[in-house]
Design goal:
- The chain is of the alpha+beta class and about 100 residues long.
- Helix content is about 40%, strand content about 30%.
- The two termini are about 30 Å apart.
Length: about 100
């Protein structure tokens, strides 16, 4: 299982606001047939699942701003793919929180 941080930035939209685009991109996650978890954050979206599923979803997410009038889209992806043990978004947070005590 992989955890991926994805940031999709529409360019050439005529406005500095991107919330409309973020909402449209988020719809892809909400309607996804793939078995994934997701968490919207103020600066990016974190998704968790099998890597091949995540990459398929990201491809669809990347297209959304174009479909909504953006002239250019910049997508940044960070992949955390640990193979020695199962890792989840919750487990990663719990591990840090335990060390903060």
């Amino acid at each position: 299982m992989a955890i991926v941080q994805v940031t999709i930035v529409p360019l050439g939209t005529g406005t500095p606001s991107v919330s409309k685009y973020v909402a449209e991109v988020h719809q892809v996650l909400m309607q996804s047939a793939e078995n994934i978890k997701y968490q919207l954050t103020p600066m990016s979206t974190i998704i968790e699942g099998e890597l091949h599923d995540l990459l398929e979803v990201i491809k669809r997410m990347h297209e959304v701003p174009f479909e909504n009038g953006a002239l250019r889209v910049s997508t940044s992806i960070t992949i955390d793919d640990r193979r020695d043990k199962q890792g989840t978004m919750e487990q990663k947070l719990q591990s840090v929180e335990e060390k903060l005590k």
